[in-house]
Amino acid sequence: MEDGRSDAKEASMVELALSLEKVGQIDGQKKLWGLLRLFMACMVSGGIQYGWALQLSLLSPYSQTLGIPHQYVSLTWICGPIAGFVVQPIVGYYSDRCTARMGRRRPFILVGCLIICASVLLIGFSADIGRALGDTKEHCSVSTGPRWAAAAIYIVGFWFLDFANNTVQGPARAMMADLSAGNHGPNVGQAVFCLWMAIGNVLGYTAGANGKWHEWFPWLKSSACCDACANLKGAFLTAVILIVISMTVTMYLAGEKQLDKADVQAASGRGCFSAFGDLFKSLRNLPPSMFKVLAVTAITWLAWFPFFQYDTDWMGREIYHGVPQGPKSSVYDAGVREGAIGLLLSSITLGATSFLIPKLCRKLTSKVVWSISNFMVFGIMTAMVVVGLISTKGYNVALTANLTGPDPKLKAIALTLFALIGIPQAVLFSVPWAVASEVVAAEEDDGQGQGQGLAIGVLNIAIVVPQFPGRNVFSCSGNLFKKFK
After folding, report:
1. Domain locations along the chain
2. Mind giving me the DSSP string for 415-429?
3. Which residue has the higher pLDDT, 71 or 404?
4. How far is CA 377 from CA 65, 259, 301, 364, in A?
5. Which one is the CATH code of 39-272: 3.40.50.300, 3.90.226.10, 3.40.250.10, 1.20.1250.20?
6. Reported pTM
7. Localized where (predicted)?
8. Residue 222: helix, strand or coil by DSSP?
9. Distance separating alpha carbons of residues 392 and 385, to the nearest angstrom
């Protein structure tokens, strides 16, 4: 009798163990599927970053082919700080309180992506639209004068593109935090977001470096749009396709829940603009050491602005010695494509360095790593100036010897500098936020801190505000350099 009970007990234990193992396998499969779904739900950030990479690598050179003077190109980028300062806080406020059936974030992602597609098409076809509106009828291969209608269309599209980018990026990042909370953790969500950004960067810079779009799709060319313009069209039309696909995947897989209107009414304050007032009022109560962080952040980003705006243009002008319009435009276009390859290298270096930053910060502290990166920026930017001067001097010598093309050694050095600048760029996108959080956390122990949200908000101001005078400085310095060159 006892043996029968013992056998039954053992059988039940085995059955229980098998059941637990099966449950564990099911839970593991659910977790894996949940992670895969989270990854695919963030695809829209990769599509947006693809377009952003094209914007960084191609639009400054393209604007000059429309007649916008080189020294004034930086002024067309002033929409960036305006969008970052105004659009993101307002969109963030309303996306937190949106009660649409499809969720809080997806309505803003949908609208933003549609505006991006329209803006990209407006930019890509600006030369053709400008000709229809009365620009010069000369063929683009011989035209050297300004095309003001095309330039106006381009600027309108550029501004809408920047505003739409900010409309999508904030809600997309917030949605990752929403979807990963409780299951995978916010760090996993942000890591997935950054991974898609890296994928978009690599694909975007590769597309920008490709000069075959006009050969693959000859119908892109017109009398107002030559090879470089047609290449931009092809890359941007691809961006539209990728954004539509990635947006569709995100809209389908990001299972957001509808927000309860009662919760929104209970949490609503004085309106979205109260966030700006609260932020500026809190500046008075910041820890003293935080102002040092803000000052270094502002100066650091001020140093980075000319690189972000003129990186590929520098390669086309200083290394390849081309000009955006006229007979040497093809040489300039080749230099721009080479510059896009340099940006691709910097993206790869940036991604690799990102894995090392946490270990370096633990070993050397975040402040030391940040300081070292700023000295690296100084060294690399100085080297670029020296390489540009040597290239100009060598070009003058080559003209007398009837030699053509860029110096292979200087081109290799320039690409190396592009790759190296990805190291401090990885620090730029991560460490300042960590330093600000450390400062605020240390003060919170003394009861004087203002919270991590304040640290992020104030640091964003330090990044955005210097861009307004910075654009004017770069324009004036461009005129000054032109006089003494």
Report:
1. 39-272, 274-485
2. HHHHHHTHHHHHHHT
3. 71
4. 30, 45, 11, 19
5. 1.20.1250.20
6. 0.72
7. Cell membrane
8. strand
9. 11
